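User: Can you predict the 3D structure for this chain?
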Amino acid sequence: MASIVSERYALSLYEVAKECGQAEHFCEELAQVAGVFSDYPEYLKLLTTPSIPLPEKQETLRQVFGGKTHDYVLNFLLLLTEKRRIGLISEICKAYRDQYYFEEGIAEVVAVTASPMDKALQDKLCGKMCAVTQKKVILKNEVDPKLIGGIVVRIDNRQVDTSVKTRLAEIAQQMNHIIA
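Assistant: Here is the predicted structure, written as C-alpha cells:
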C-alpha cells in the first residue's frame, strides 16, 4: 500500500499529465523509470546517498532520462531527488497507475496458469472479466508450473482459485479430517 506522501506526489503528477493530455504516456514512462531503478538498485542508492551533492545527482538523472522521457517526468524526478523522495519512486509509480486506472475505468487482471495462455484463451478471459467488472481489462498472464492445471485469477482484492494444486490440497485436508 502506498504511503500518503507517495499518493500525493503521484496525484500531483497525474493532474499535470491530465491537463496536458499525457496521462497514459506518463503512466508508461513512470513504469519504465521504475523498471530502471528496479533493475539497477545501485543507481537508486546513488541518488539517495546524502554525501553526494544534489547537482551531481540531478545531472545523472538528466544524462540517463533526458530526451528519453517527457520533460515533465524528468522534472518530476529532479524534484523527487531534491526533496529526498526518489526512494519512493516505485510506490509513486504504483499510486500513479492506480489513479490512472481508476480515472479511466481500467481493471488489472492477473491470470496465473501452469503454462502460458494462448491468445484465444486470453481474449475469452478478457471478455468475461470485462463483463464482470464493467471496466476495460488489462490482462497479465503469469506462469506457475506448480499449479499443475486450472487457473488463479486475481482482480483488485479478490482471487478466484480453480487450480488443480488447490483442489488437491482441499482433498488432502478433507482426508485428514476423515482419518483423524
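The chain has eight helices and four strands. The longest strand covers residues 106-113.
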